[in-house]
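testing teh design pipeline on a random one, pls ignore if ur not involved
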């Protein structure tokens, strides 16, 4: 039986009350906190760094899943590991040495993953499957919350699920972008087990109602 995980993205949270926001969303049933890092270089937006990760760390016990949308990748990895990140993922196009970046994350005691934009092929996984703990399929182009789910992502989730099954390894398959109560079941059916949702959760007053509704869809 698949373990499904809901990973609210703090991108749509109230940044002036971030500690309270992450506590509330975990109390509402979140399994993971998804932490979007944007650098105004790899993506056209700027968010938060290791200091903010460190600041929210004492507020929650659940894993913090750091999604790096930055270039270069390597020099920020140790800082996030020290700031309490549990999972660190990066975009393969943003790293000159993908194997080295994955190894660096693991050497710092975190789970490592690769992120695939809508037009990025999964072939980047071919020689590094044994160093990957998470595969993150983007169902929007990265940079902003509140965009619409790109349906072609479902095919890619299916493809990634096949690769994971063939590997025989325990690899999380996460989907990120435009996930809502209405489409979470389709993403699960395609093979995703971890669901990032920003605006769908933080855009509603009752986080628990949204997370419960997502779980009902996943159980159906
Ligand atoms: C987009 C980010 C996402 C984003 C998701 O670049 O990686 O994590 O916050 O937000 P929604 O769920 O609103 O699409
Ligand atoms: Zn993200």
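output:
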């Amino acid at each position: 039986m698949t373990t499904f995980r809901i990973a609210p993205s703090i991108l749509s949270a109230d940044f002036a009350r971030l500690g309270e926001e992450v506590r509330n969303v975990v109390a509402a049933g979140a399994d993971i906190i998804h932490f979007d890092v944007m650098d105004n270089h790899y993506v056209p937006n700027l968010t938060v760094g290791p200091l903010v990760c460190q600041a929210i760390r004492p507020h929650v016990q659940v894993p913090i899943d750091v999604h790096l949308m930055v270039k270069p990748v390597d020099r920020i990895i140790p800082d996030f590991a020290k700031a309490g990140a549990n999972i660190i993922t990066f975009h393969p196009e943003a790293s000159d040495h993908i194997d080295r970046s994955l190894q660096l994350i693991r050497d710092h005691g975190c789970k490592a993953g690769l992120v695939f934009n809508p037009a990025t092929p999964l072939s980047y996984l071919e020689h590094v499957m044994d160093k990957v703990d998470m595969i993150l399929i983007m169902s929007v182009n990265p940079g902003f919350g509140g965009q619409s789910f790109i349906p072609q992502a479902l095919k890619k989730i299916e493809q990634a699920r096949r690769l994971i099954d063939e590997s025989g390894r325990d690899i999380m398959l996460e989907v990120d972008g435009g996930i809502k109560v209405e489409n979470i079941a389709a993403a699960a059916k395609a093979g995703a087990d971890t669901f990032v949702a920003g605006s769908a959760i933080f855009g509603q007053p009752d986080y628990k109602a949204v997370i419960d509704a997502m779980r009902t869809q996943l159980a159906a």
